[in-house]
Write a structure and sequence with these properties.
This protein is an alpha/beta fold and 249 residues long. It contains seven helices and ten strands. It has one domain: Rossmann fold (3-Layer(aba) Sandwich). Bound molecules: adenosine-5'-diphosphate and magnesium ion.
Amino acid sequence: MGAPETPALEARQVTRALPLAGGFVQILRGISFAVQRGEFVALMGPSGSGKSTLLGVIAGLDRPTTGRMLVDGIDITTMPESRLAGVRNAKIGMVFQAYNLIPTLSAQENVEVPLYAGQHPGSPAVRARQMLDMVGLGERATHRPNQLSGGEQQRVAIARALATDPAIVIADEPTGNLDAANGENILALIAALRARTGTTFLVATHDQHVAERAERTLHIVDGLLTDSATPAPPPPAVDAVPELAPPPA
Ligand code: ADP
Ligand code: MG
């Protein structure tokens, strides 16, 4: 970790354009924000507004077309993938909108994967089982993803993201497929982690319950944060610049 004032996440004028039909479609159009360490920030916006794309850029899974992305003060914008994978593994837990579980592995084995990849102390098997218990899926540990409901797969994905105790958790609609009770469970888990380890959370969500628990909400519409979309006022015309008031006597 760097100096205490270093934000956990910082985007500077991030754009992302993708080639489409001989031209380009601009998906992110100049996104700037900072998330401080320990903050719980919700990201809300209509479907197609760019939430998943932005989370992908933040996690270093996709590159900005222009602008810079910093994680814990480290500029990951053009970092080679070999190094970036290390930063991601050391600092970020990611919950994907589509879960991205490995279909041939059991729930237990899916949660173990990042524990083998990283340097987390202790037994991966024991830790993975604890995480599954925590999301209420201890009984389903041996089931493969296709033997689990959407909501259960979502909880496995959450257990996997949290297993390594990452400093920063980026979650894409993590309660989207959960019933009220399980959604509430996940919110309680987030609250407990924040209290215990000061984990930073950035959560894309449509769920008003999630947004209510967040300290702050960023709103994205059509690839722009509306909170910061107001353009800076143009500089005043030269002959309109007011005289500076004389210093107080
Ligand atoms: P959200 O998560 O807010 O629903 P997304 O980030 O998934 O939005 O998508 C934002 C916009 O970018 C949508 O219009 C979507 O169709 C488009 N988009 C996303 N990924 C791609 C891609 N790989 N190629 C072309 N367009 C894409
Ligand atoms: Mg999405």
